[in-house]
Amino acid sequence: MTEWFDRFGKDFHNIFIEKDRWKWLVDGLFNTLKITFFAVLIGIVIGVVIATIRSTYDKNKESLKKKKGLPYYILKILNAISNVYLAVIRGTPVVVQLMIMYFIVFTSVGDGTVVAILSFGINSGAYVAEIFRGGIMSVDAGQFEAGRSLGFNYIQTMIYIVLPQMFKMVLPTLFNEFIVLVKETSVAGYVGIMDLTKAGDLIRGRTFSAFMPLIAVALIYLVIVLLLTYLDKRLERRLRKSDH
Amino acid sequence: MTIENDVIIKVEDLKKSFGKIEVLKGINAEIKRKDVCVVVGASGSGKSTFLRCLNLLEYPTEGRILFEGVDITDPSVNINTHRQKIGMVFQQFNLFPNMTVLKNLTIAPRKLLKLSKEEAEEKAFSLLKRVGLEDRASAYPSQLSGGMKQRIAIVRALCMNPDVMLFDEPTSALDPEMVGEVLAVMKELAHSGMTMVVVTHEMGFAREVGTNVIFIDGGRIAEEAPPEQFFNDPKNPRLKEFLSKVL
């Protein structure tokens, strides 16, 4: 038993401590968190905008069609653009999107991390949009009417009345998307970004030892996801205050 | 004040279709200041649609609605500023479930009338007192009974200082023992001089509080009369049949 511990300690030292290779993992983790955090922000912004456009169009196309005004055509075009965006983003693998962005679209941007943030953000936005749209559609129509009857315009009703209720409803699904996103960023290595996965893989290559670096990487992802799950539960509990 | 100025809502040849089904087939009506106009009719007759057209929750297919002299069906009119003057109470209350009672009451005055937090809350509390619910300000809607919810919904509309109040079957979703408390608030409101349009099945309320009663049948106004005449001497055969069923 002590022999096993001795060997474990020695391996651990050789793999992580020597040449400060543990710092690679820290750098990689930092990159993974950075990409995920900003991609989540971009995804939420895109998601709110696309979901609002699509649900506004679905709810009002009948009444607007009759009036045939400029708003109808603007909304129709925005809705068409949203649909193309959703089809393309959800219809192609995120790795391919990332490589297209890095090797074709943003060849002049030196910092791969920025390209990765944009790619994952744009990708996540499509999924978040559909989550939000489902949430908006499931808020009772009476809530919307109550807001309008008080004198709020369409946008104000969305912001003050519908979206806060929608957020509460979609929170578990939304966190699920974030959890998927954290792990999806592990393909960032394809465009030469040193994320957590890539760092682990580099250590494996240098030390000719697969077990420890890869298990360490897996454990770190697991901890991140567990933390996100905990945060989700806490937020849900706080928001549940109003339904006794 | 001229007689014309006294008319707060004037409906001219209002028609409304949902797809191929024509629900309202040409309605003409006038609601004067301090009127309590009670609208009755069988379910599916179009009475709720009529009410919902008055603040454009349903957009009319044809016809005009003049609110305080302005044609609100004109697309160039900003309906939102007019809706601030038209309070509405729904059958299903439609309180905001994620907000406390106080927040429900103050959000519109604060955002739309730009009242300060203190002003809005002071107004809310004085109205809550009027309906006997000032101790429920920090409760969430889910903690209240149906009757309380509906009284709060009435107060929410009143917080905007409306010129007219629309009631869409305000007691139909309530347990029988809670109908009275809501009707009492509406009665008090009518006596205070509020102009009201009430769609309801409560014939007692129509008889006691109404200044005129409208019977809608098949998308048209089949009879309109003061309550006395409406209930004691109905002319329309469909109304006679209707009253024999509900009274």
CATH class of chain A: Mainly Alpha
Order of helices and strands of chain A: HHHHHHHHH
How much strand content do the residues of chain A show? under 5%
Domains counted in the coordinates of chain A: how many? 1
How are the elements arranged and paired?
The complex is a heterodimer of chains A (244) and B (247).
Chain A: H1 2-17, H2 22-67, H3 70-91, H4 94-105, H5 112-138, H6 141-150, H7 154-184, H8 196-207, H9 211-239
Helix pairs in contact in A: 2-3, 2-5, 2-7, 2-8, 3-5, 4-5, 5-7, 6-7, 7-9, 8-9
Chain B: H1 3-6, E1 7-18, E2 21-32, E3 36-40, H2 47-54, E4 62-67, E5 70-71, H3 79-83, E6 86-89, H4 101-112, H5 117-130, H6 146-158, E7 164-168, H7 176-191, E8 195-199, H8 203-209, E9 212-217, E10 220-225, H9 227-232, H10 237-246
Could you name the key traits of this structure?
heterodimer; A: mainly alpha; MetI-like fold; B: 247 residues; alpha/beta; 6-stranded mixed sheet; 4-stranded antiparallel sheet
Protein described:
By secondary structure, chain A is mostly helical. Chain A has a single domain (21-243), classed as MetI-like (MetI-like fold), CATH 1.10.3720.10. Helices cover 84% and strands 0% of the residues of chain A. Chain A contains 9 helices and no strands. Chain A has helices at residues 2-17, 22-67, 70-91, 94-105, 112-138, 141-150, 154-184, 196-207, 211-239. In chain A, helix 2 (22-67) runs antiparallel to helix 3 and helix 5 crosses helix 7 (154-184). The radius of gyration of chain A is 23 Å and the shape is elongated. Chain B has 247 residues and is of the alpha/beta class. In chain B, helix 4 (101-112) runs parallel beside helix 6. Chain B has 10 helices and 10 strands. In chain B, the strands form 2 sheets. Chain B has a 6-stranded mixed β-sheet with strand order 6-7-8-3-9-10, sandwiched between helices. In chain B, strands 2-1-4-5 form a 4-stranded antiparallel β-sheet. The mean pLDDT of chain B is 94. The chains are: A mainly alpha (244), B alpha/beta (247). The A-B interface holds A 63, 67, 69, 140, 142-143, 145-146, 148-153, 156, 160-161, 164-165, 168, 239, 241-244 and B 55, 57, 59, 75, 80-81, 83-84, 86-88, 90, 92, 94-99, 107-108, 111-112, 140, 142-143, 156-157, 160.
